[in-house]
Amino acid sequence: MEQENTKNSRENGIKNNLLIKSKKELKGITLIALVITIIVLLILAGVSIATLTGENGILTKANEAKTKTEKAGAYEQVQVEVLGSMGADGTIDLEELNNNLKNNIPGLTYNGKPITAKSEDGQLEEGEENRIETLPAIVTLYGYSIVINADGNVEEIPKEIADIIANPKEYYGKKVINYNTSDKTNTYRIFYVDKAGDFGEPNTIYLKADYSSQKHSLTQYELYDKENTKVREMNPDWAKVDKKSSEWNYNEKAAAYLCSPVNATNKASTSLPWKNYYDEDAAEYVIGGPSVEMYVKSYNEAYKGETLESGEKTPYTLGANYRNTETPGYIYTVNGSKSGTSDYITANDTLDCTKFNSMYCGKDCLKATSALQWWLASPSAGNINDNGNGCLCFVDCYNARLDYGGYSAVRAVSPLVSLKSNFIPQVEEEKE
Predict the structure, then answer these.
(1) Cα–chain-centroid distance for residue 143?
(2) What is the SS3 assignment for 175?
(3) How far apart are alpha carbons 73 and 26 in whole angstroms?
(4) Domain boundaries, given as residue ranges, for the chain
(5) How many helices, marked H, and strands, marked E, lie in the chain?
(6) Is 264 exposed, middle or buried (0-12, 13-18, 19+ CB in 10 A)?
(7) Does the N-terminal peptide bond of residue 261 adopt cis geometry, omega within 30 degrees of 0?
């Protein structure tokens, strides 16, 4: 009996030990499983967060889709109102366009302000008039800048470019720091914004390189690019005469030479002096300088409303008119009349050299250094009998005036850059 009890006690002890051991093992397994479960959950959470918020995450894609939908909606609304403003002849009625945009698209702005409404009797509402007068025009909706073209098409334009086009005067003379060429010594400035397409495609932004000390004669005028010269585009008044190139005078051919472009097609083979001013990523083309028509438009737009020398002097309004005579070309006017000794030269100190980073005439008109003159890509109506040679327009920095002279003389160039429509200029603030 005693032996049996001892045996039972030993068996019970063994069972208790096994039970305790099982509980310990079970407790250990439970902790490990918990840790593993937490790790798995963390991994799943990380994957879920990445899936939601990563570069290709659900939330990112949703925001992109929302943006695309919003942008498409903005363009569609404007396009509908533009088409609704077109007459049977396919032209846009600006009166209808203004009314439709104002009345049917809440939140749309033009020049940063709502379009001015008209009452039923045709009277404008009180306040400053703000209506589209010409096309192309840039309107803004939901933060997107939209160009309305004269043919009725609408297109996107980057905000930075839209701001330059809408406020060109604020950018004239500003240095562009992301226009890169092989010659790092050149400085490029915003020179003109061609909203109406007077010199090419509407809304083109043009840069002008600061003139170089290197001077050029135009005696190689016969080498002008007969197929691609921009002389007609740059001199629209002259082009109206529609002379055949075989009838051009020396001065007209010299202007055509200055207007011969460096572009993606010929950049490797051309010997034009301004080839090193071409940036294939940014420029459509580069020519030897602005025409006198573009120079005058840019100057007048920049100086409109400006005062000089603490308000003691008002800038002159320049003019350049084509005259089709025996020596066809341009004559100058100042405030609508002849200035200086002839039609071909303005009076000294006509041009200002203190504003817009001295883009139009040179720092202090270069009076502290030496006389400098740079070509304008336009024929002059003046003829100084330069051994039978014709004359071209140029800027006389030393005398701060517009002038003319024979193409065989050596003068500097100040190349003109026509920017690609998708290139966004980065400007640098400079003290004037």
Answers:
(1) 18
(2) strand
(3) 63
(4) 59-157, 169-432
(5) 8, 17
(6) exposed
(7) no
* DSSP H helical ranges for 150-272: 159-166, 231-234, 236-239, 250-258
Helices marked H in 142-192 — which ranges?
159-166
Q: Is the pLDDT of residue 78 over 80?
A: yes
Handedness of CA 265, 268, 274, 277 (dihedral sign): positive
Asked if 355 and 279 count as a contact pair (C-beta separation under 8 A), the reply is no
364, two tokens:
């202090």
Q: Greatest CA separation found in the chain?
A: 150
Of the candidates 357, 317, 359, the residue with the CA atom closest to the CA atom of residue 339 = 317
Which residues lie closer than 8 Å to 200 by C-beta, 6 or more apart?
194, 230, 233, 418
Give the pTM.
Answer: 0.77
**In whole angstroms, what separates CA 428 from the centre of its chain?**
14
Amino acid at 1: M
| pLDDT tens-digit series, residues 350-372 | 998 889 998 998 765 555 455 58
Q: What residues does 375 pair with on adjacent strands?
A: 394
Cα separation, 430 vs 432, whole angstroms = 6
pLDDT at 184: 78
Q: What is the pLDDT of residues 126-183, one digit of tens each?
A: 656 889 988 888 899 988 889 898 889 998 888 899 999 989 999 999 999 999 998 7
Closest to 378 measured CA to CA, from 353, 344, 418, 351: 344
Q: What is the DSSP string of 236-249?
A: HHHHTT---GGG--
What strand order describes the sheet that includes 144-148? 109-110, 137-141, 144-148, 154-157
